Structure prediction request, 203 residues.
Amino acid sequence: TLTGGDFAIPNTYEKPMMAEMRLDLAGNADAIAELASFRPIDALKHTPFTVEDFSGPVTAQVGARFGLVADQKPPPPQWQTQIALDGVDLKTPIAGRAITAVKGTLRIDQNQAELKSTADIDGVPMEISALEPVGTKSTVKRQRDISGTLDDKAIAKLAPGLGGILSGPVGIDIAVDDTNVQKITADLDNASLVLPWVGWSKG
Prediction:
């Protein structure tokens, strides 16, 4: 649903003739993503997502500046969109994990996509911070950071091999850089750890 916006041509005598547009949108995530995928914005073109990947309520602000006459050889469009996610589900798993109940802000422009949110990962509440390059000319480096506190049920879901060895609460931070190298930091101050094969435990 279009809830507001404007369209302007700052100078009708200028060549190339440029237009400026602002849209305020509200509705289901897949419908908003579809609008953001149209030219000149085409926000999803260089991301791993499609319109069908999103479901749930969102609001969005979209701004763009673009040329109106192709023969005048205007510069590439400039655009940005800010999307407020309110319990959005991703239909396609990421790294084999179900991502649901995403609440936060997604900002996308022609260079990068930045997500700051909370979400359930396989049903476990976590905080997510992600930065992704957009477009083939982007110099932005991919960064992903996931953090949260795991109880025994969460450990059983996310790391079943640690059952009987580790019990929560465990604070965890997973950082993934642009080469997909993972750095995992665990806070075991309040956790119990048992290593029976060496006769050692921390409780």
